[in-house]
Design goal:
By secondary structure, the chain is α/β, with parallel strands linked by helices. It folds into two domains: about 200 residues, Adenosylhomocysteinase-like (Rossmann fold, 3-Layer(aba) Sandwich); about 160 residues, NAD(P)-binding Rossmann-like Domain (Rossmann fold). It has an eight-stranded mixed β-sheet with strand order 9-8-7-10-11-14-13-12, sandwiched between helices. The protein has a seven-stranded parallel β-sheet with strand order 3-2-1-4-5-6-15, with helices on both faces. Helix 1 runs parallel beside helix 2, helix 7 crosses helix 8 and helix 7 packs antiparallel against helix 14. The protein starts with 10 loop residues before the first helix and ends with a helix.
Length: about 375
């Protein structure tokens, strides 16, 4: 399975031109909590050229690229890193929030954010973890602004989550292991949502033996009919050569896993939350830690069964495809284009939207898809 790698995929430039022509972002302010990479810099440039005012906070220090910070500085975009980045961004009193992990939105709401008209008028969220936190707040009746769920939109789910992460995982594993392919290796994918299913399909495409751990019976059944054996945690830890975590939820890796895991196992996370694999627990339990390469660390543990064993953790538990910027950039550009056009939609419609979680309007995804097809070299005649 492959995706295209065109070097002239000018989707964000096209989106920027559309936004500039329509003028709906001119002098409007957006707080953006995101990974600070060269790709998000390209999206920020499109917004600034369309007249928008951005205030950006870092969502993960391990994925921040210095080149992106330099670019944002040249654009005149205020950005903040570190523990208090969210508070500093909100101090600019933006009109809307675009979130990764629901950090900005939750900070705003828990600080006493008022109803639309009294401050921030709307928000959007791009991750499964963030949507889970959104729903927790909704259950407590604390969600009093409209929040668009971009994560479960068709484009984010089918292209960005499935293809971008799957493609990026393969390259990240190749960098970590120094191997071009992994034929016959037993790789277990934990979680069979869109991210996990994409990883499983891409791993199958390079010849790996792939099994899946999935607690949800519907997703487990889907994994079976997609051609993957569903395995247990104990079997996976005892036999897998590589474990890919893709649930996006913290606390997946438990203390007893170190004893149960196969000696030499590589663990690589592609979920949003690095706490999924509890890197601090690895640091605490290990008696020796060694750097193997720029991606991988070897952790040596005392074992009741074998005396000692070594396990390997990639990118410190951070989402590997983002930390390494691996895989094609096209799906990420499609996702970022969706974010930008969602902001425009919110500026136009926020006062008419009810508070709570909202689905992504189809008109936004249709416009992004049309622009992406054009960037890929298609036109209306060739497509329709």
């Amino acid at each position: 399975m492959t995706i295209s790698t065109m070097q002239n995929f000018d989707l964000l430039e096209r989106v920027g031109e559309v936004l500039k022509e329509r003028g709906n972002l001119a002098n409007r302010s957006i707080a953006w909590h995101c990974h600070l990479t060269t790709l998000t810099y390209a999206a920020a440039r499109a917004v600034v050229e369309a007249g928008g005012r951005l205030y950006i906070s870092e969502c993960n220090a391990a994925t921040t690229k210095q080149s992106a910070l330099s670019g944002l500085k040249d654009l005149g975009v205020p950005f903040y890193t570190g523990a208090h980045a969210a508070v500093k961004v909100l101090a600019h009193k933006p009109e809307i929030i675009s979130d990764t992990g629901f950090v900005l939105t939750e900070t705003y709401l828990r600080s006493g954010g008022g109803a639309p008209g009294a401050g921030i008028s709307a928000a959007c969220e791009t991750t499964a973890d963030g949507i889970g936190r959104l729903r927790d707040l909704r259950a407590m009746a604390a969600l009093n602004i409209p929040v668009i769920n971009i994560n479960e939109g068709e484009l984010k789910s089918a292209i960005d989550n499935f293809h971008r992460v799957g493609d990026g995982l393969i390259e990240a594993l190749q960098i970590a292991t120094g191997r071009e392919s992994l034929p016959g290796n037993l790789i277990v994918v934990v979680g069979y949502g869109r991210v996990g299913s994409g990883c499983a399909q891409y791993l199958k495409g390079i010849g790996a033996q792939v099994k899946v751990i999935e607690a949800d019976p519907l997703r487990a059944l889907k994994a079976h009919y997609d051609g993957f054996a569903v395995t247990s945690r104990l079997e996976a830890l005892a036999k897998a050569e590589v474990v890919v975590t893709a649930t996006g939820r913290p606390g997946l890796w438990q203390e007893n896993f170190f004893e149960e895991a196969r000696d030499g196992m590589v663990v690589i996370n592609v979920g949003h939350d690095r706490e999924e694999v509890a890197p601090a627990l690895w640091e605490k339990k290990a008696k020796k830690i060694e750097v193997v390469n720029e991606v991988l660390k070897r952790y040596t543990f005392d074992s009741n069964r074998s005396g000692e064993k070594c396990l390997y953790l990639a990118t410190g538990g951070n989402p590997a495809n983002i930390a390494l910027l691996t895989g094609s950039f096209e799906p990420t550009y499609i996702h970022l284009a969706t974010e930008l056009l969602t902001w425009e939609y919110l500026f136009q419609e926020a006062e008419n939207l009810p508070a709570g979680e909202l689905t992504l309007p189809r008109r936004v995804e249709e416009e992004v898809s049309s622009l992406a097809l054009q960037a890929l070299g298609y036109n209306n005649e060739s497509v329709f």
